[in-house]
Amino acid sequence: MLALLEELVDSASGRSEYADVRHVRLREERVSTRSGGVEAATHDEEEGIGVRVRVGGAWGFAAAPGSERSAGEDALERALAAATAMPRGSAAQLAPEAPVRGRHVAPIGEDPFAVSLDDKLAVLLAAEAGLRGDPRVAVSSAHFLAFREERAFASTDGALLEQVTTDCGGGIAAVATGDGETQMRSYPASFRGDVAQAGYEHFRGLDLVGHSARVADEAVALLSAPRCPAARTTVVLDGGQVALQLHESVGHAVELDRVLGTETSYAGTSFLSPADLGSRRYGSTAMSVTADATTPGGLGSFGWDDEGVPAQAVPIVREGVLRGFLSSRESAGQVGLERSGGCMRAAGFARQPLVRMTNLHLEPGDAGTLEDLIAATDDGVYLETNRSWSIDDRRLHFQFATEVAWEIKGGRLRRMLRNPSYAGVSPEFWGGLDAVCSEPAWRLWGVINCGKGEPGQMLRVSHGTAPARFRDVQVGVA
């Protein structure tokens, strides 16, 4: 395959300013149970070749399924025709990148695809059975997911790369009904659980069976819990909700193609501008954010991005001030950055790469454990496990809801509250950040449904976060 890709870029080199070719083989397994039975057990595979060329500053992209020479040659010709037919593009040079040749295989323990379907179903059915102890639990569900990507890449700059990544995880959820109410609790996260770049050992370590009774009990308890009152108050978010907040109000906002207005599909642009770099106050001094594609176990970790740029850590916010963007070679060149942030990623072979989040982390603080943070909070609300999110197309005004909340009174968790939500404006909200838990409370949270582009692309990414406290937040708005 590498030999074929090299031949294709050699053929493109005389007819384009730049070209790259990717061969991608994807393998995906999803297993789920629902209310005591098997809901689905699917195994999908696909492979193909994607070709991207730049002619006169304009890009052309085409793809073809399979791995045959004829498929690659056909895709190359169509990509060249598309680029040639486009109006002249940007005159900016691509940010320079030394060509690399190498192979990267992300380490895992136990291969999830080698574990039998019977073994996976045994875990899921046992966990789900533990959710059904109370008749008010109307729906119980459990999920297993595994993904493998094998990528080969060549460019006219001389890069020649191979990489293999494996992701695995899952989760459980209980839906309780009664007295006109419907409530849900999930573990370890909503939207089908938690996934990491790891083997079957990650799924096993979630201990879904051990958490099922608590999840069901909390779903039932929410039916009679008082509604979260509307107020401006102090909010403590669990790490999973901080991850979602970071993803939506920081991650997408600092994608440089959105900032430049060259990508507006699927959730819009950004409230930031290139001139904000180094001066714009994004939040309080407690806020430091890093994009890091080298994080072990991160879904946004790799050896090289889809332009052949090596994985790296990029400072995004330091002590509340904007210090970096997520960028590609082209967007970096447009604003005068010395180097791409290595953030070009594509979903499969049939989509062209876009500027996408790598692993975006809120750096840990010094507030100790979650228990320490609660004890240091006189009055407020603790919110846990995302339920829904909404944010405008400039990533500025938002409203999020969580599955559950608890009152904080006198440094202790008190009443459970149902239907909690909170709203704000991104820089004002982050300006209210005054405490982040310490490193032992920091962990990765996987997101498997990050969408962008037209036609749309779904990618997986992780966020490292710890529970955090925000002052003067509007809650109970839903």
> Biggest sheet, in brief?
8 strands, mixed
Beta-strand fraction estimate: 35-45%
- Regions with pLDDT < 50 over 5+ consecutive residues? none
What is the number of E strands? 23
Mean pLDDT, rounded to whole units?
96
Shape: globular
Number of helices: 10
**Distance separating the two termini:** 53 Å
Kindly name the structural category.
Answer: alpha+beta
Helix content: 10-25%
Radius of gyration: 23 Å
Could you say how many structural domains there are in total? 2
Structural commentary:
This protein is α+β, with helices and mostly antiparallel strands and 478 residues long. It has 2 domains: 2-224, PmbA/TldD superfamily (PmbA/TldD fold, 2-Layer Sandwich), CATH 3.30.2290.10; 231-475, no CATH class. Helices cover 21% and strands 40% of the residues. The protein has 10 helices and 23 strands. Strands 1, 2, 3, 4, 5, 6, 7 and 8 form an 8-stranded mixed sheet that branches. A 5-stranded mixed barrel has the order 9-16-17-19-23. It has a 4-stranded antiparallel sheet with strand order 12-11-10-15. The radius of gyration is 23 Å and the shape is globular. The protein starts with a helix and ends with a strand.
In short:
With about 475 residues, the chain is α+β, with helices and mostly antiparallel strands. Helix content is about 20%, strand content about 40%.
Q: What features would you highlight for this structure?
A:
478 residues; alpha+beta; PmbA/TldD fold; 2 domains; eight-stranded mixed beta sheet; five-stranded mixed beta barrel; 23 strands; 40% strand; globular
